[in-house]
């Protein structure tokens, strides 16, 4: 049965607008065209930015209660259309319908948290009399919105990562212009509909669809854009940082996440957690498990149980509730993963299971004996491939975990508090998950990494801090005050 092809518009400063040209949105599972979406021009992007700037100048003191109302109403819209959002995420992307439902629930929570944090964006009083001669001064600081936020989001979480840009921006009182991934723009368009229905002020939200090479540079370099918030790959992040100039930048640039399994770990929990962490969302997950280091005494047992669990995963139709893993986002990505694995095998790696491609599908794959010079070891694979290695002790595991350019999150399984705290202190990452895989996050926690994994932190409260600035207010009182 042929899928009905939708015709969508982009949302520019409160208006739904078609483009002179369109591009196709394709279901990666069967290459069916599911929608035609406007291919925005540079002029479209400039118009969105300029209208956002004008809106901000006219509504710079947008009341907090109105921000809360808009965010709450948008979250309610998502809740009412939960299944439609989930089906859209699955159709345009890689996630199974079960994974997509989970993403919708998280996006609702992200927007609700944004509404809650809007009322908590506060300053504090300053004791100016701590300085000799300032006894007659009193004051405080408060946080103010910085202006237009430019946001660029990836394909792997096409709704919740968009919510993580829009929610905090609106909560902080900033207009935002967002360019979603070209392969998964439909979820972002639907979220714009939610905010349109919620009555967001005109100009405070635009969702512009199109090619990054055509409109991305405009968004990054326009002087009215005061901050760029980007989630994507390391090389793209470096390019944007060079382009942006003197403005705030927040970047989450992926990872190559390690998990350490020590002798005293609960193997049942460790296997279940790391298999899920390695292969959920087809491994297209910035905090997904890519490298597992297992102490020698339990290595063989862990490896056997991990392979057995991996072979139980069901690969197939992403719209089926029985499916564990669907296709990668495009066949070219599956081909790239296949090439990296083949390269590792030629360099001496052992294929324990998987390694088979069918179009955009790639079986969950386990490698051992991987050379540390192999691309699959030191780069972000962003696919369903995991490396398992034996280590002598925790010191060796931490040394190996730290030897790549990335540092987003890591995991460790142990009952020993000393060992847990050793990894907390020694791992060069933005987060350490104890007795869990690297693939754990709640939407309120500070989220981000070190080294090549990015700049700044997301998580609603922390994004809002990035999207505001403190302003100090000091009153010098009369000389007789207090005398």
Automatic annotation (TrEMBL):
UniProt keyword list: Oxidoreductase
Aldehyde dehydrogenase domain boundaries: 17-473
Molecular function GO labels: lactaldehyde dehydrogenase (NAD+) activity
InterPro entries given in the database record: Ald_DH/histidinol_DH, Ald_DH_C, Ald_DH_N, Aldehyde_DH_dom, ALDH-related_metabolic_enz
Catalytic activity: (2S)-3-sulfolactaldehyde + NAD(+) + H2O = (2S)-3-sulfolactate + NADH + 2 H(+)
Superkingdom to which the source organism belongs: Bacteria
EC code(s) of this entry: 1.2.1.97
Stored Pfam families: Aldedh (PF00171)
Stored SUPFAM superfamilies: ALDH-like
Protein role: Part of the sulfo-TAL (or sulfo-SFT) pathway, a D-sulfoquinovose degradation pathway that produces sulfolactate (SL). Catalyzes the oxidation of 3-sulfolactaldehyde (SLA) to sulfolactate (SL).
Name this protein carries in UniProt: 3-sulfolactaldehyde dehydrogenase
Annotated organism of origin: Salipaludibacillus neizhouensis
């Amino acid at each position: 049965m042929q899928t009905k092809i939708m015709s969508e518009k982009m949302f520019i400063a409160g208006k739904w607008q078609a483009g002179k040209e369109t591009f196709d949105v394709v279901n990666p599972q069967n290459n069916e065209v599911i929608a035609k979406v406007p291919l925005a021009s540079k002029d479209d992007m400039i118009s969105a930015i300029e209208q956002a700037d004008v809106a901000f100048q006219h509504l710079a003191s947008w009341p907090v209660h109105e921000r809360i109302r808009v965010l709450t109403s948008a979250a309610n819209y998502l809740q009412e259309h939960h299944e439609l959002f989930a089906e859209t995420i699955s159709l345009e992307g890689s996630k199974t319908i079960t994974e997509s439902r989970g993403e919708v629930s998280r996006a609702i929570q992200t927007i609700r948290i944004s509404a809650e944090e809007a009322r908590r964006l506060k300053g504090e009083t300053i004791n100016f009399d701590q300085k000799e001669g300032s006894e007659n001064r009193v004051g405080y600081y408060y946080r103010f919105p910085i202006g237009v936020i430019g946001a660029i989001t990836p394909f792997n979480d096409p709704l919740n990562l968009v919510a993580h840009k829009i929610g905090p921006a609106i909560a902080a009182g900033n207009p935002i212009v967002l360019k979603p991934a070209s392969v998964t723009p439909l979820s972002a368009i639907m979220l714009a509909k939610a905010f349109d229905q919620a009555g967001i002020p005109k100009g405070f939200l635009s969702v512009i669809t199109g090619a990054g090479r055509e409109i991305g540079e405009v968004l990054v370099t326009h002087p009215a854009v005061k901050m760029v918030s980007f989630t994507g790959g390391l090389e793209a992040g470096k390019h944007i940082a060079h382009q942006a100039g003197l403005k705030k930048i927040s970047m989450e640039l992926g990872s190559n996440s390690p998990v350490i399994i020590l002798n005293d770990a609960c193997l049942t929990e460790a296997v279940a957690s790391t298999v899920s962490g390695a292969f959920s969302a087809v491994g297209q997950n910035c905090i997904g498990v890519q490298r597992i280091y297992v102490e020698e005494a339990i290595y063989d047992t862990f490896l056997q149980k991990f392979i057995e669990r991996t072979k139980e995963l069901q690969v197939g139709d992403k719209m089926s509730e029985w499916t564990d893993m669907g296709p990668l986002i495009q066949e070219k990505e599956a081909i790239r993963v296949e090439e990296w694995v083949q390269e590792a095998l030629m360099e001496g790696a052992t294929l324990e299971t998987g390694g088979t491609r069918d179009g955009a599908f790639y079986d969950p794959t386990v490698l051992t004996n991987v050379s540390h010079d192999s691309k699959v070891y030191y780069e972000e694979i962003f696919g369903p491939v995991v490396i398992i290695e034996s280590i002598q002790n925790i010191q060796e595991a931490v040394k190996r975990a730290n030897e790549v350019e990335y540092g987003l999150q890591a995991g460790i399984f142990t009952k020993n508090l000393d060992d847990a705290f050793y990894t907390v202190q020694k791992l060069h990452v933005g987060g350490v998950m104890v007795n869990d895989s690297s693939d754990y996050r709640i939407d309120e926690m500070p989220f981000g990494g070190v080294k090549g994994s990015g700049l700044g932190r997301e998580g609603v409260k922390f994004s809002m801090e990035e999207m505001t600035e403190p302003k100090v207010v000091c009153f010098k009182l009369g000389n007789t005050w207090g005398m």
